[in-house]
From TrEMBL:
It holds the Pfam family DKNYY. This is DKNYY family protein. It comes from Marivirga lumbricoides. InterPro entries: DKNYY. It comes from the Bacteria.
Amino acid sequence: MLYNICNDISNEGYHITTEKVYKNGIPLKDADPDTFTAIEGTLFYSKDSNYVYADYKIIESAHAPSFEVVEGSNGLYYKDKNNAYTQWGIIDNSDGESFEWVGHNYAKDKNNVYFDQYVVDNADPNSFEALESYIGKDQNSVFVRYYKADTDIDNKSFELIRFDEEFFGKDERHVYAVFYNSSNPLQIFPEADPATFKPIGEYYAVDDSHVYHYSYYRGHIKLLEGVKPENFKLEYDPETGADAKSHNKLFRQGELVTTK
């Protein structure tokens, strides 16, 4: 760093001299100053007329003249004429020529749909649409990240419900909690009415006849037996730590704490 300061070489970002290219004060091996450019949308990838660099290393398999950020992806995806890439590296078996951004965190090529560097197994590229950052669907199935939901979903009527930063799914028959890190990511709220279902906070939800507690940490949905939504409200009790009540019953995280 002291050497760079003495020689007027920046220790932050890219610095180009007549002889070398530096990144954060470290020279990039064999980089050509005359043709060097940083790739739009990233500080990770850069290139010259001969090489593509991932951070400080040359990607030997990359084709520098065609390497670019994938349009619309906000720097999530990159491609050249042969392959596609994320900031974690090359996407195995991807086709750079047909690769395109679908929306949110999803992309596709002529063969597959991708979530980051992962193939979304059994997703149809021709009909796939991204619903939000971690959820998409095709003509046959719904997917959360790169997992296919095994639940029997009515695909045509499936849509998302948003509550603050949470998403739920619903179709004509069911309401679903979204468990992002589960291999079976859509779990049914038992007996829930899609037309009247709504989350109310503190991981509770109601419809016109039922009250539910759901837990992403525990990976469960619980129907509060015998509790009616018209009598249920969120209310903190400092003595018991309860977060909700119904008449004289107090609940904490969906469990009955005490009856007063």
